[in-house]
Amino acid sequence: MTRYLVVRLAGAAATLLAVLTFVFVLVRLAGDPVRLMMPDQATAAEVEAVREALGLNRPLIVQYWDFLTSALGGSLGDSLRQGRPALEVVLERMPATLELAFLSFAIGFAAAVALAATAEVAGSKRLRGLFLWIATARQSAPPFLFGIVMVLILSVNLGLLPAIGRNSWLSYVIPVLTISTFEIALYLRLIGSAFDEMREADWVRTARAKGVSRPRLVLRHMLPNALLPVVTVAGINLGVLIGGLVVLETVFNWPGLGRLIIDSVNNRDFPVVQAGVLAIAASFIVINLAVDFLYAALDPRVRLA
């Protein structure tokens, strides 16, 4: 088990280093932030003075080394626009993104489990097919388009819910509805496939022969086994969800990390971009480590492998 944990931690550290390197190179390919910050009438000497003050006149390898050492020390520089530590700016926006991602994930996953279990307890292929068809039809519409339609119906036409912002619990309804309904199809297919494999298993037939009721068989025995292979996919998908809310946060004017990164890219505020991407990458890595450890705890065969 110890070797398993060490290997996973080493892989996480290597992934984080690769992300740091990629972000450092990418943001510097976007253009000169000093030219964007300075007014058009600024002289070459003034531009150079600001560049020197920010340390952007040094060789890239030196900037890269300083960036790595500062990142390991918990400092990612100051925002070029706000004059505050970039990490502080990012951490202010992080809760809004995490709330939206975790709430949408939890509702989508719970709904998929409930629908799959209901269809299996009922023993109806038509019901399973109906649930899957509806979920797949929803997934065929891009989230941003579905979100805009929901805003038009529920906010503009009916006036039931706020269209943008994060001012009350009602503000969560449309974004969470948009994201969670998109997630249902994925988990519904995975759980349904697991049920299909177990339905003719020897231990299931034995339980039926012993007179175990169908609801008890499904909920107490089949469902826990069906969820085991879904754990890994769910963890990866949650990490992707946290990093993939950029467009939706823009659509709903959600004050989260994705919108902050978009604004910072437009403003060439690369310390904030670096801090934001690093925060998303760190969240993804932590979630995947937690899933790996959970899976190893649930399935001893993973540790042995």
Automatic annotation (TrEMBL):
Cellular compartments per GO CC: plasma membrane
PROSITE patterns (UniProt xref): ABC_TM1
UniProt domain ABC transmembrane type-1: residue ranges: 94-295
Keyword Ribonucleoprotein applies: no
Keywords for this protein: Cell membrane, Membrane, Transmembrane, Transmembrane helix, Transport
Stored Gene3D superfamilies: MetI-like
Membrane disposition: Multi-pass membrane protein
Main location: membrane
Chain segments annotated as transmembrane: 7-30, 100-123, 144-164, 170-190, 226-252, 272-298
Domain of life per record: Bacteria
GO BP annotations, alphabetical order: transmembrane transport
Subcellular location: Cell membrane
Family recorded in the similarity comment: Belongs to the binding-protein-dependent transport system permease family.
Protein name in the entry: Peptide/nickel transport system permease protein
Biological source species: Albimonas pacifica
Record lineage: Bacteria, Pseudomonadati, Pseudomonadota, Alphaproteobacteria, Rhodobacterales
